[in-house]
Amino acid sequence: MIKVGIVGATGYTGAELVRILSRHPEVELAVLTSRSYEGEEMAGVFPHLTGFTDLKLVPFQKEKLALECDVVFTALPHGYTASMAGEVLAKGKKLIDLGADFRFRDARVYEEWYGVKHEAPALLAEAVYGLPELYRQQLKGARLTANPGCYPTASLLGLAPLVRAGAIVPENIIIDAKSGVSGAGRKLNLRVHYAEVNENLQAYNVGRHRHTPEIEQELSAAAGTELRISFTPHLVPQTRGILATIYTEMKTVITTAALLDIYRDFYRHEPFVQVLPEGNFPQTKSVAGSNYVHLGAVADPRTGRAVILAALDNLVKGASGQAVQNLNLMFGLAETTGLEFPGLFP
Question: Which residues, 6 or more positions from 285, have their beta carbon under 8 angstroms from its beta carbon?
Fold first, then answer.
């Protein structure tokens, strides 16, 4: 059994990790840490986990994690994981960071967009960007994985096939994305209070969202040239889900059927990416609670543009489910282990 530690177990992504891993046949939950609920039982803080874990929450101790765990998941705000990663790796253990500390290949980009000094820049060259559909081979046997952000996961899965195929003008990409409130985390924040969110739709961090350079980095790698995108996120009054609507110019105008064929070919062996039939479009409720991504596309000959839509659960494929997918690859397990469950409907 793979012994797992989760740092930050009482945030939304940490709790989702516990939910998924508590049913994983090859995993034993060993250490769950929390500053806010130290000494309490995880199932007491999250009653939906009653019967699935009896672990108590303990304070963060690098030594305890390195001693008792084979792999450590960190579900922390940016700036915290970098300071502990080296010690965990030095003990021969693996680390999967659900934060932003190891997503960038250039520490200067991280420091510019996140406003803090990177504490372990030497590890950036080793960290593997944890999007299995693009980096599966590198993830196999990796020691350090940087789990992608939720918006980048939807955006990159929506764009990678067209960029790789050279089917679009990559300098002209607009991403309009909406997220449920859980994407803002569990910490108290006036913007996500019920009275602020209910019956409301709002854009935020327009032109300066921190996921922008992450998307640009990976699209640039796929295109073989440096790209810039327009990305605008929105907050919608629902708990889970991301829907990204992407607009891009086609190099040669093709039919919707031909456009979808590019996606079906690119993702033909992918267990968690489902390309919908022509005329069907992704919706967040169809993937809620699952690790699946639904993709749809339309070729618009009138404007010469392709419109791509991607839907996923921001807490599962956008965070914790994808992290478990990465764990499976890192430890040589079947990639789908512990993750083959459908979404919840209604």
Answer: 241, 343, 345, 346
Q: What integer pLDDT is reported at residue 181 of this predicted model?
A: 95
Specify the amino acid at residue 28: E
**DSSP state, residue 319:** I
Residue 105 in tokens: 């290949």
For the beta sheet containing 230-235, the strands, ordered from the edge strand earlier in sequence to the opposite edge, are 202-203, 230-235, 168-179, 242-250, 305-312, 293-300, 273-275
What is the tens place of the pLDDT at every residue in 167-222?
999 988 999 999 999 998 888 788 888 999 999 999 999 999 999 999 999 999 99
Tell me if 191 sits within 8 A of 204, measured CB to CB.
yes
Please, where in the chain does CATH 3.40.50.720 lie?
Answer: 2-126
Domain with CATH 3.30.360.10 in the chain: 151-314
Give the CATH superfamily of 2-126: NAD(P)-binding Rossmann-like Domain (3.40.50.720)
* Domain spanning 151-314: CATH 3.30.360.10: yes
How many Å apart are CA 214 and CA 194, to the nearest integer? 30
Neighbours of 89 (CB within 10 A): 18
Active site (annotated) includes residue 150: yes
The one catalytic residue in 30, 95, 131, 150 is 150
pLDDT in tens, 96-137: 999 999 999 999 999 999 999 999 999 999 999 999 999 999
Share of the chain above pLDDT 90, in %: 92
Between the alpha carbon of residue 265 and those of residues 157, 165, 276, 278, 334, the distances in Å are: 13, 11, 13, 15, 22
Please give the C-alpha separations between residue 157 and each of 92, 227, 263, 270, 335, in angstroms, as whole numbers: 32, 16, 10, 11, 17
Q: Tell me the residue type at 152.
A: P
Q: What radius of gyration do the chain's Cα atoms show?
A: 20
CA distances to 3, 85, 171, 179, 210 from 216, in Å: 35, 25, 11, 19, 11
Cα gap 94→159, rounded to integer Å = 30
